[in-house]
Predict the 3D structure of the following.
Amino acid sequence: MENSRRTYDQRPVNLSVRLVVACAASLVAASISGTILYRSLKSQRETPDIRFLLADDWNGKPWPIADNFDAELKNLTVGKWLVIVFRIDCEHCKALAKRIDDQQNLGADRKPTIVSFVAGHNDWPVHFGRASISLESKTVIHWNERNEPFVASPAAFLLEDGKVVDAKDVENADSLVQRILNLP
């Protein structure tokens, strides 16, 4: 009967090895979790909350639709730009786009370059150098799993080196565009 009894040898060395392995595994798991959390928080910081693209909210702040949406938009971080956001279903937007003489802005001294966004769908076409409400463009903002931001249209944003220095929307957008582009 004495042979059927088992004895367990719990030597301090065996216990120490187990503790070291458990600690090392915990540190690896914590490190991996920390890295994932850091990357998640970093990407949230890099992508601003733009549920609303209202002129009053963005004065004095960096332009929120940047190169994290499309590499071409990196251009907006250098120089002067007049960003105009039109809605495809807005008659006021169509009238303002017709008023803007695209040719007078190209290469003009001290005038910002026009870039227009066409809102109203989950994909926004972007037109560099002209005011357009066309849905055809090689540069397109894809909102993917997000909803497109609400924009009071039309909206005009004057950017200098990527920062909004003046912004107006609805009827006030006309006066800002007229003043900046010297429209009659």
In short: The first helix runs from residue 12 to 46.
